[in-house]
Amino acid sequence: QVQLVQSGAEVKNPGASVKVSCQASGYTFSVYYIHWLRQAPGKGLEWLGWINPNSGGTRYAQKFHGRVTMTRDTSINTAYMDLSRLTSDDTAVYYCAKDGYCTTTNCPGIGENWFDPWGQGTLVTVSS
Amino acid sequence: QSVLTQPPSASGTPGQRVTISCSGSNSDIGSHSVYWYQHLPGTAPKLLIYRNYQRPSGVPDRFSGSKSGTSASLAISGLRSEDEAHYYCAAWDNSLGVWVFGGGTKLTVL
Are the C-beta atoms of A94 and A122 separated by less than 8 Å? Predict the structure, then answer.
């Protein structure tokens, strides 16, 4: 079955960077976009952006431009999300999710796709 | 503050029907499909409804979605204890250029 397994919890100091991994199995990794989302304690879900695992092309939410970098290693079916200049506001559970519709060769339009399935989540705590 | 507006809580007794609303604007729900996710604490969120009313395989037909204008709703009939979870609506927002979500509705089965 399709599965996304994320790396373990992280504790970081303010100003540091964190890199979260997301290993996919059960499908051809290079075919479907991978999204990254987060949920801060007591708050709603927030979309950070997505990566085309085939080309490495990315689209980031404006809010995170300059701080987030999404990459992938197709040899091990793994996507990565790197967030720099961390503050306490970045304390959250970070999720990767496979796009349920858009493939890297056919994506009629963003907004008609969805997140399915999701990884189990990675808690990132930013604290001094 | 979340872009899409959901009630923070909802409740019902086993067997009842409950609905959860999701209100947006012309740039999100008014222009794009709505999606619903179920989130049980400590687990990964799960896709419940896609493209306004479509159910993925494996999702019981007790769950149904609808959309009208800039609002959408999720209905759960024949409420069961295992339905107790947080429910989130989502849509793409043209103006913001991001996926936007509701703040989530915590469903309690009494």
Answer: yes
CA B55 to chain centre: 12
How far B78 CA lies from chain A's nearest CA (Å)? 25
CA distance A16 to chain B (A): 26
- Asked if A95 reaches chain B (Cβ–Cβ under 8 Å), the answer is yes
Kindly state the tokens that stand for A115: 């997140």
Beta pairing partners, B19: B75
Q: Is the Cβ pair B44, A62 closer than 8 Å?
A: no
CB neighbours of residue A98 within 10 Å: 26
| CB-side neighbour CA atoms (13 Å) of B7 | 12
Q: Provide the pLDDT confidence category of residue B2 given band limits of 50, 70 and 90.
A: confident
**Nearest-angstrom CA–CA distance, A90 and A40:** 7
**pLDDT of the residue at A100:** 92
CB contact under 8 A, B56 and A116: yes
Query: Per the CB < 8 Å rule, is B47 touching A95?
Result: no
The label of the residue with tokens 């400590």 reads B42
b/e A59-76 (16+ beta carbons within 10 angstroms → b) = ebbeebeebbbbebeeee
Structure token pair of residue A59: 């689209």
> Is the separation of the CB atoms in A44 and A35 below 8 Å?
no
Instruction: Give pLDDT, residue B19.
Output: 98
